[in-house]
Design a protein that fits this description.
With 148 residues, this protein is of the alpha+beta class. The chain contains one helix and eight strands, in the order αββββββββ. A four-stranded antiparallel sheet has the order 1-3-6-5, with no helix packed on it. A four-stranded mixed sheet has the order 2-8-7-4, with no helix packed on it.
């Protein structure tokens, strides 16, 4: 009797699991190659560009309607053309490295994805000040220059 009962529970669980999985994959499904881009330590005025690769793992076209940075120093650029199932697109992000100090910014992606219609990705790192001659200037934890 116990075996029959356990078999019935297992069968029901498998049916519900298969239905839930099928629901997630129908429509447009957004997947990114990474959630966070870490610049590490970058020099002031350095190249603050990075890219995120978007893949549509769904069954219909993915349309990205908006990409918005968390502030004016973070400028994302999204391709507006629909991304067909199995294809990829690129989101380019440019950070203004004239600002010295830690980087912790986000970009909000809005799309027709069934799994995550609003997706937040992040950039992080530290912009290190450069001396007039181009040599890096050491900073304290508060961001103030350290004299040697």
């Amino acid at each position: 009797m116990k075996q029959v009962f356990l078999t019935a529970i297992l069968a029901v669980a498998m049916v519900f699991g298969a239905q839930a999985q099928a629901e997630v994959t129908s429509g447009a499904v957004i997947k990114l190659d990474k959630e966070v881009h870490d610049y590490g330590t970058i020099q002031q005025g350095g190249d603050g560009a990075c890219e995120f690769v978007v893949t549509n793992e769904g069954t219909s076209a993915l349309t990205i309607t908006r990409c918005k940075g968390s502030c004016g120093c973070t400028v994302p650029k999204c391709e507006k053309a629909p991304v067909n199932p199995g294809e990829t697109s690129t989101i380019s992000v440019k950070y203004d490295t004239k600002r010295v100090g830690p980087i912790n910014k986000s970009v909000t992606i809005t799309s027709n994805a069934t799994n995550e219609p609003t997706k937040v990705i992040r950039i992080k790192g530290t912009v290190e000040a450069s001396a007039a001659g181009g040599a890096p200037v050491k900073q304290s934890a508060s961001g103030a220059p350290v004299n040697k």
